[in-house]
């Protein structure tokens, strides 16, 4: 397993928001900035962070989520490091 860096304030990660309407399930990955790290405030788990999540939405463009857990399997309302994109050239 690849070792991943622990998150720190100011890093940009993905936040997973799973939308279900009965027929379809859609998992959206939104950019989020790490704005709180629990271990810097007495917590034990370096993978639990507070995130300011950015939405393509003019009415609520940023929302804060407290105590978000890391999950590479992209379950709902968790964070992960952004996926690598294809290289060109
Ligand atoms: Zn992602």
Stretches where pLDDT falls below 50 for ≥5 residues? none
Q: Which cofactor or ligand species appear?
A: zinc ion
Number of strands: 5
Order of helices and strands: EEEEE
User: Taking Cα atoms only, what radius of gyration do you get, to the nearest Å?
Assistant: 14 Å
Q: Look at the helices and sheets and give the structural class.
A: mainly beta
Strand ordering within the main sheet: 4-3-2-1-5
Oligomeric nature of the chains: single chain
Silhouette: globular
Percent of residues in helices: under 10%
- Number of DSSP helices? 0
End-to-end C-alpha gap: 28 Å
**Average residue pLDDT:** 93
**Percentage beta strand:** 35-45%
Give the biggest sheet. Answer: 5 strands, antiparallel
Describe the model:
With 89 residues, the protein is mostly beta strands. Helix content is 0%, strand content 42%. Strands 4-3-2-1-5 form a five-stranded antiparallel β-sheet, with no helix packed on it. A hairpin with a 4-residue loop joins strand 1 and strand 2. The chain is globular and about 40 Å long. The model has no long low-confidence stretch (mean pLDDT 93). It binds zinc ion (ZN). Zinc ion binds next to loops.
């Amino acid at each position: 397993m690849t070792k991943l860096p622990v998150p720190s304030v100011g890093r940009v990660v993905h936040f997973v928001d799973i939308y279900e309407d009965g027929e379809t399930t859609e998992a959206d990955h939104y950019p989020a900035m790490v704005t709180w790290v629990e271990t810097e405030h007495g917590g034990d788990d370096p993978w639990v962070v507070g995130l300011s999540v950015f939405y393509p939405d003019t009415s609520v463009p940023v929302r804060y989520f407290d105590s978000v857990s890391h999950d590479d399997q992209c379950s709902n309302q968790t964070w992960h490091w952004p996926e690598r994109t294809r290289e060109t050239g």
